[in-house]
Design a protein that fits this description.
With 208 residues, the chain is of the alpha/beta class. It contains six helices and six strands; from the N terminus they run E-H-H-E-H-E-H-E-H-E-E-H. It has one domain: Rossmann fold (3-Layer(aba) Sandwich). Helix 4 runs parallel beside helix 5 (147-154). It is globular, with a radius of gyration of 17 Å.
Amino acid sequence: MPDRVILFLDYQNVYKGARETFHEPSLAPGTDGQIDPVRLGRWLIENSPYDRELVEVRIYRGQPHPSRDARGHAAFVRQRVAWESDPRVVGVFRDLRYPRGWPDRCAPGLKPQEKGIDVALAIDYVKLALEGRYDVGILMSTDSDLKPALEVVAAMRPNGGPRVEAAAWKGPGAKRPLTLSQPKIWSHLFDKSCYDAVRDSTNYGVPI
């Protein structure tokens, strides 16, 4: 029986990491940094030396509110529909928190922020491990707030728990993947060739 793999994506962290690693963020269009989550999951399976099966891709990200950002919300919906056309995709989305007076009457530089996404991801990573939903949980993020979830699941391993793995981009300026001092966990490092294979250049801001 192949090992069941769930890929957990901290999507905005993955997106921003790709822009910082493979593009010049101040010059790149908004589509640069986008990836196809299922294509990335398949790439992981196809390039693994182990017998594995991708059973789920879980995407965690903030969603624009339709009354605060109608265009951003419409683009988000189009992207979500594209993602969820694959039955293995599970989206966990929470409304963005907007600065008071945004966008015209707030302090310069303030932007909407994700709230609760890292907590939701961490809870699910542990909860699904306890439920026996995966044999390998690959978490792609460089947010150190997620390390406790990895530690909890890694501690289950000696008693038959799932395998904990991390993933991150690889290249000049890329942030390091999440690691544990004990036990050591495997890190998948995705270089430009992988990024080129899984990137999504669709402009979701334009209605189809």
